[in-house]
Amino acid sequence: MAKFLADVTVTLHIGALLFIGLGGFLAWRWPKVVFVHVFFALWGVLVNVTPIPCPLTALENHFRHQQGLGDLPGGFNAYYFYDTLFPRSFLPVIAVFALTLLVLSYVGAYQRWRHRHDGEGTHARPVHLG
């Protein structure tokens, strides 16, 4: 059961990372998602630049310990992504790319929101005489 729960935690963690990277684009369709996304994005930055541990990494480590394994060597990102999906030396490029995606997603969400709200007051209203 611990292996299954660890695998579920990895899946949730990857989903959270995808949401952190791409969730701003969901706000183009559902503007209120931006508030949840801001929380996730800030949390992602916080756990990557401070010693605050990610709760999903801690949860996976808990399930690994139940299997007799140790903590993820180097943490979640280091274990699953660095030198597996991309070389560690690409981190600065990936950080710039991720920041660019974030800015583009928020600019697009704002433009779509503004376009929707600009159109609300421009519809002709019937004039009642008398």
Automatic annotation (TrEMBL):
| Keywords in alphabetical order | Membrane, Transmembrane, Transmembrane helix
Source organism superkingdom: Bacteria
Transmembrane regions listed in the UniProt entry: 6-26, 33-52, 89-109
The name of this protein is DUF2784 domain-containing protein
Organism for this UniProt entry: Amycolatopsis melonis
